[in-house]
Amino acid sequence: MNGLLSGFTIEGGSTVGRSFFNATTDGMIQDDAGHWSIEPYIPLKTDTLADYLVQRGELSATLQAEFRQRCDMIDRLHHERTGAYHRRFTSLYASVDPDSDCKPLLTESVDSSEHALKDVSRATTDQKRRSRQCADLESSQAGHAEICVSAAAEAGSEKAPRIDREKSRTPEQMQQVIELFRQIMDDAGYKKVERADIEKCVGVASQWGVPLHVDLELFEQLVVYARGDIMGTRFRRRLRKMYRMETFEIPVYQRMVVAFQLKSELLGDEALSTDKMHLRMFKNIPKEDVDTLLPGARVRISGLDHVKIIVPSLGGFLMSLRKIAQYAILFAVIALHWSLILIGLLIGYLIKSTLGYFEAKKKRELKLTRNLYFQKLDTNAGVGHRIIQQAHRQRTCQLIVACYALQTAGEPLSPRRLRRRCERILREAIGVEIDFQIERVLSSLQQMNAAVSHGKRWRLTPLESLS
Q1: Do 103 and 95 form a contact (C-beta atoms < 8 A)?
Q2: Is the Cβ–Cβ distance between 40 and 189 less than 8 Å?
Q3: Which of 5, 36, 258, 301 fits a 20 to 30 Å CA distance from 320?
Q4: Phi-psi bin for 268: left (phi > 0), alpha (psi -120 to 50), beta?
């Protein structure tokens, strides 16, 4: 088995044994799990891919050495682009990073404070001077008072443009970060989850998930990316099956990244600011449970949970009334005691129902917290740097496969034939259909001088021409 999913209780022996041992087990991902869509992501390490291509036996010993050198040079050249991504992301994200502990220089703080004090002092002096002028002219020209008042108001608002400039910086920085993040995610083989798909998941729980209520209006910016569209195996017990363990499959995202900015402060266990860009990365998320990753999600108690809470309490209340009714004659003598007992029973019933509601809600929240604890991979700046590394590996694998396909073809290939050849090689390697992005791969090879086109056909350049 490749990996266990959330909610898995580690008990018993082997993976399968533990799965069938516990009725609340959510499931697992098989090594040969099926895919429910075709995507550009290549799930291979660069070294593993290069070794496999050499072992295919289509290259002579001399060409194998040349191919190894070409792979090393491609990795080195593409690493320079990855370094540029790192530097640009670090520079842009530093100003909107919620976890940043950097402070402005002390001289900058002092200068800004002095400028602010001077501005305030100057504005106060001007306002007093204009007020005195207004008082002197009030007896002779009453109309001048209105002009003086407006002048004083202008003096009090001298700092407004500066504040507006400070506020306008944040949206620009956010937009730059979002655009760069989109490029990185695209290079890493992720696809964007549309807002309509997110809205479909809100309030709907999968066979094993937790029903939630999420207000999407909380977000100023919200983008979700996913990769690894596979089928996960789940286990469940149902009454109509006599509580026998049965398996079923649901679509799962192997990796999911959420980037968001809030409109207003979100208070709670984790206070989130509105002027920062928050990044979260998770693994093995069912397609129907995307809403569990969003902040501000509130657990929603289902109708079945309400029945579980109300019916036992109501049954106990009715049984108590039945017993009390047997002694109705006795209690009729002391009517006051009868009324007090009924009131006490009613209060007890309400307290028990309320405690049962909060207990059920706490169990739901505990399950959600436990799931996300094991599924969360990284946050904020760590997400960006991790994705940049994945983008480097993804693009390098694409370039290596394309070079191998051109080197073993024996003749120049058209983009269409090259794409089919690359997809066939990858299918034979891992048994997965890949949507090979031939246009961007050929563009990268051309920028490196690794390949040239003659009309509509492409061929490799000599090794020494790579740059």
Answers
A1: no
A2: yes
A3: 301
A4: left
Give mean pLDDT in consecutive 10-residue pieces for the chain, a chain of 467 residues: 39 36 46 70 94 94 93 90 88 90 69 50 54 50 42 45 50 87 92 86 58 77 89 74 77 90 70 86 84 70 56 61 59 59 71 64 57 80 94 94 94 95 95 92 92 91 82
Enter the pTM of the model: 0.69
Where along the chain do its domains lie? 3-32+189-299, 46-90+381-465, 106-158, 303-377
* Cα gap 293→255, rounded to integer Å: 12
